[in-house]
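Protocol step 4 of 6: structure prediction from sequence.
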Amino acid sequence: MPGSFRFLLLAVLLFSGLTSQLRAQALSRTDALAVAESFLSHRWQPTMKNLRHGKDEDGVEVQTPDRAGAVGSPMEELWLVDQPNVGMAYKWGGFDSLATFDTGVRAGKAAGDVYTQEKRRQGGAAVSSGAVGVDCSGFVSRCWKLQSKHSTDSLTEISRKLASVSELRPADIMNQAGGHVLLFARWVDGPKTRALFYEAAPFSKVRAKEYAVAELESSGFSPWRYRKIRD
């Protein structure tokens, strides 16, 4: 085989491999929403062992988002003992997959751990190893199929800011750095003033909720798009 032909063949193979790798790294909007909806519709059944209101074995305060003791959310968003529940529980610092969440529940770990100002102050030191679930940025990290959990601060490092909220498309985010993040699902009106978002709500679970985007902006949220997403 002539040297020039071998070089050309090698170049084609390398280009093909690089193209395949880039495609594998890219994320479609459809795939991201499918992940979000799997967390939203996830069915699970806790027992009394998954209830926790007090300190875990490491001394970290844990408050599960259940109807027996948690406050701050509508009752229908809080889970019930020995009943089928829908939607993964919120956990401060959580980054569980559906599989690891279910495994933790079966092992008797706390099903979720709600947000508090004290947890915000302590940061990672307030994350309980004895609880399972997902927090707002952990949820977005899962939806974007990231290898590790990003925070509301670091999500912007892998995204680009949109010029206007009107540019939001499915699987983009409204992010409040150092606060909360929402995954955009769709517009619910023609003028693009209200939209449906998926989120890991800080006091309950993964849910779908409509928001007025102007109110989000006035609260410090801004629109961002993951750099590796594709249509």
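Step 5 (inspection) to follow. The longest strand covers residues 181-187.
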